[in-house]
Amino acid sequence: MCENDVDICKDTAFNASLCFNGATCLDGEGANFTCSCPAGFMGDFCEVDVNECCSAPCHNGAVCQDLINSYVCHCRSGWTGLHCEDDINECLPQPCIQGICIQNDPGYGYTCFCRPGFVGKNCEYNYDDCLLNPCPEALSCVDGINKVSCLSPVTDPVPLVTVVKNITRGYTSKVETPTLSPVPKADLSIDKSYIQYFGNSYLEFKGIDLGALNNITVSFQTTAAQGTLLYVDQGPVNGDFFFMKLFIQEGILQYAFCCNEEEEVKRMSTLTQVDDGAIHIVHIRQHLTPCEAELILSGYEQIKSAASNYWLGHMIQKTNNVFTGGLPQNYLPSQKAKPFYNFTGCLEVIEINRMRNFDASEAVGGSNIDQCRFFLFATEASTESVSTLTSQSAPSDTMNTTMMAAPTQAPEQPLHEPQICREGLCRNGGSCHQLQLPEGALPICHCQLHFTGTFCEKDSTVYIPSFDGTSYLELQPLAFLLLPSGDSSNHASAVKDTTLYLTVKTKSTQGTILFTQEQNLGDQFLHVFLEDGNLVAELGCGGSHVLNVASAQTINNNRWTPITVRYRLPVGKQGRSCMIEIAADNGTTQHLEELVSLSVSEGRFGPIFLGDVSSHWERHDGSSKGGKRFIGCIREFQVNSKDVDPVSKAIRGRNIKNCDPPVCQHLPCRNGGTCVSDAEDWFCECPPLYTGRLCQLSSCERSPCSHGATCIPKSPLEAVCLCPYGREGLLCDQPINISRARFSGSDEFGYTSFVAHSSIPSLSFFYEFQLKFTLANNSSAVRDNLMLFAGQKGQGNNGDDFLILGVRSGRIMHRFNLGSGIATIVSDRLNYSLNVHTVTFGRSKKIGWLKVDGQRNRAGFSPGPLVGLSVFNQLFVGGYNEYTPELLPLGSRFRDGFQGCIFDVQLRTRRDGKFQDLGKPAFGRSVGQCGVSPCLHVHCSNGGTCVDSGSSVYCQCPFGWKGALCSETMSVCDFEHNPPPLCAHGSTCIPLPNGYTCQCPLGTAGLHCQKAVSISDPFFSSNQSSWMSFPAMSVRHRTVVQLQFQPLSPDGILLYTAQHLSTRAGDFFCLSLRSGFVQLRYNLGDGTHILQSAEKVDSRGRTWHTVKAGRIGNEGFLSLDDIEVRENITKGMTTLDVTTDIFVGGVSSLTSVPPEATEAHPVSFTGGLRELIVNEQELELTDVGAVGGANIGDWDGTACGYKVCQNGGQCKATGVDSFICICPTLWTGPVCNQSVSCANHTCSPGSICAPSTAISYRCMCPLGRRGTHCDAKASTDILKLVGNSYVKYKDLRFTSRSLKHTQVSFSVRADSSDGLIMWMGKAEHEDDDYLAVGLQRGHLKIAVNLGERLSLPLTLKSVSLCCNKWYNLSLALNNTIIRVFLDGERMLLEDVDPFERYLALNYGGLLYFGGFELYKNISAVTFGMFSKGFEGSVRNVYLFGETRPVDFLKNSEGFNIYEGTV
Questions:
Q1: What is the pLDDT of residues 778-797, one digit of tens each?
Q2: CA-to-CA distance for 195 and 203, rounded, in angstroms?
């Protein structure tokens, strides 16, 4: 009766659910039912996945990937966040280990600027400075950080010190050794890892892990003929077959090893005597599968063991303990390894399989060892005051002399006394001098000009010369410097007076600045020197007449000071006046003049000396005035207003280095900033994206801070404002009245709060301050805090004048330095029960005092003779504006600024004067009002803490929150997240609903982009939004693409370029896959052209397909595996204007691809690519050839790429990163790129070897050469061109030519009917201007492009060049009208652009004859107008109506040019 309604959802006849995607089936009336869809699906059967990407939730060009009931944004490189809304700062995790990180543009990671001495992407490697071989042959080099130590090993076999260490599991008796006299201080270099063994010593270390290849590096030094250096086996209980033993036998270094029971012991001998007392380094590469070894003895030889055919069935995983120097008595070694002799000498195990912990402290056992000691020659510059030429020295001057530490005190009976200045110690002409010190003699090297270093081993480029007390520069004589340019005579034009001008910077009180003297020890001389800081000039007039004049100013203030010296010598039979003038620092000129009645002959001054006088030149009368060597810099030097560069004009010199500004010597600038300084001021020139006094801040270009506040980036998107004096609040936008200043010390960014007063009276001889203060707390506020400071501005030097008041360890401290030492006065501990403290402190000349609260008055004295304090421009209270305390003078440094309130500050500068207020501060930072906190007006959300930094304020957010007020949630990809994302440096973290994923930059792969990959054939994945990019190319008139690919998906972008990278792309060109068909879509500005392949591709990864696609003008074509589809020619626009990179396999921002570029939503390609050619230019599809990319892998995971082996060679992978090429018969070389026939060619240099057959070749000669081997000269009067010839002429008069009126003429004789005769233009890009002449089927063909290629080529069918006859051809282009004359008869008159849109032929000064460079395709360069080079002869080329023909031997290049005949 059919009265029962069957539940259709449970009907077993369907054998499947009626609803999809996990939906629930709900039975209805009769056969009806409905589906209850889970979240993320819709439709009658829940068959439709809801696309959550339709709302375009992703920002900044991200690609939205639809998930089930969710989505994920694949951000373009440089962006992060759930919706790609945050710019990533790759420098936040501080990846640069020994350097400064600078963030590049989004998507391009970061760059590390390394500290000197470190290299590597993350500055992780200490550069081996010993690679330059800086040490003399007798010494060995030990690398340091940006320096080396040159060691001379102690060769006496007796140990220097008694045994200091005895590590053993049992007991081994100590060997008695002689006790030597004490070692002088700083004479020895002790390396804990360089161990001394005494013939009954050994050390035992834990076993090592073994691999298929094991590396061992050992350094040793001995005079013993026998000894075991290193021994390792598997222990007696694990078999007696495996061991490795490095040892010395009869003075020869040998190595023995055995890997298995089946083979005999293999022994390797170096045949090199190593018991010579020198340091030797040996490196062993021990293979286990097969069992083979390679030994390299540094500086001598490399040997390999015999080949082994035995492969271990199982790998030996770990060894027994490692022994060095010998074995303990109770140890049972392998019987095959005997005999054993313990080692005597010094030994260091540098590395075993990347393990380096082999010093004595890491040993598990050992006996009777010591640490080796060496003679050390330090490379650090000493600052001792030394003068080897004078008996007096001033304590205030220092000399920067390169010295080496004295040798170790010898044993009681030394073998011989070492020679201090050995031959060849100082390089590049440097001279060695012995310096006597109480500990012994030291060698010091005086370096010739343009060399520096401990041993004068380094080249030096000097810009501003500095003199260290041993330096000098020797210039040519004055007469030579006064010669007019080009005059080679030795006579200067007569000048009545001679004027010298210099700029000098020095702190010396004594020293020669300039000296010159009459040749042959005459009586006339000029000497400019310092005497007690004053500038003095002496002029020897002849005989005993000497004039001496001194300036009124002292110039030893370490700032650039101009000096002018003018003199006149008496010359003549009757005698004349002798005059000298001097002026310093633009002060009053001091003048002295005398009449000399004696007859004085005209003498000629010899060389000019700056800084000192060469030892080869005897100074006039041996005077010691100014004899102390000059220390300072000389920047400018003029003779009679003629500039003379002291360095480039120097004949010779000694110990000349660059003049470094004092502040910049501290390298204060960070993040790659450049320090610019002199004694008055300094600043940092910051690289892009950095700002701040020291370039320590990342860019705050969009800073919200107002009123001149300092912007500090707190995170990539957040900033903190440090408010100037008088402002407060989050943005420093609120005014504040300050009656009692409150200081907060140093904030977390390293800045102190302070106020600065500019108009302060002189504090030179007397000052007295009184002030009151309260403390913020009794702990950090009294630990080490600066209260008041005045001093020399940011020099960081010892001896700088200053006065300072601070609190340290609960006591008030008053310090001052007058230039000759520091006076320190310290109070009793503060009474913390007092709320307000009072301080009175002052100084009168050398005496200072301090009184705190009710404590007794304390006094102190300044050492040295000086009594006056320098004049200061500013007085700082509470802190200091410098970011780095190290730039404060020595002795004035406090770790922190003051924490509390300072008020009622008064000052007097006379004992009987009245105290006066300091007045309103000139400027300041982060200063608040005492008792008032800006946190009252700031409310941090979500548990954030308000940080009060004076008048500056910000929120410190708890974990999970960020933003100015802690109101924003933290992303899993934020570096502040705990745990932080594990994406490797340079990769992009993309947040997901349940975690994150890492987008890998080009050249990396792995879950966290932690693996480095080399790409030979790229692999793309649409799931990972892969893409590569290449620089934009010229594709405006013609775009031809050839591509080989193997797809694993039926959809994806193969190639894309556009006018703009946005959905409003303008012109674009896109080659893609859609449902297995190849589609070409392009837009030239008048609509989208679409072509589709006739067949589908194999999307299962089984076939390599070749596609050729493109457009010429507006006509498109598409060929897939030689099946071509063409578009019907239609009128319309013909040029493609694009500016973006050429994207391959995808686009960096898929959301920026316009909808009309792909039939469906754009996705990345999935599969492999192995060849890409655009307009006949092949793009290198590797991690090196591309300029950008993301998530790219290698197709087969090997180094074998499609074209790695050239010329048909077959690539065979030998490892993950290695391969070999099996070359065809005619080719050889690592990648089959060398012709067999040319392997040993005899072509002359500059020519090209071209293979003819398998056993022969010919030489392609350059222009001007001829002969079988191109060894003879060739005439260029007649150029004979043979089809693969070219001449490229550069017109040096191009810039003066009239480009609107071009004229060129030449004679030509043709040997064939087709070919390019002349091309006038750059021939680089398709839009370059050109004027071309050639033959087509014997007829003359002319082509002109003044821009836009508006005119078509013109073929003169009425004109034929034939019959082996000479023709005179002339072309004239005036604006847009071209005229062609043949043998004087006009053949063509044509207006190539009647609208005159372009008028000038910008040919770039280049003309080609016969063809182009050999690597260029003539058809491609000429856009198919000419297909081959010219065969024939050209002569008598005239340009622009000139009367002389072009000389091709000048300003030309070319190949395959033969001598023509008439």
A1: 888 999 999 999 887 555 45
A2: 9
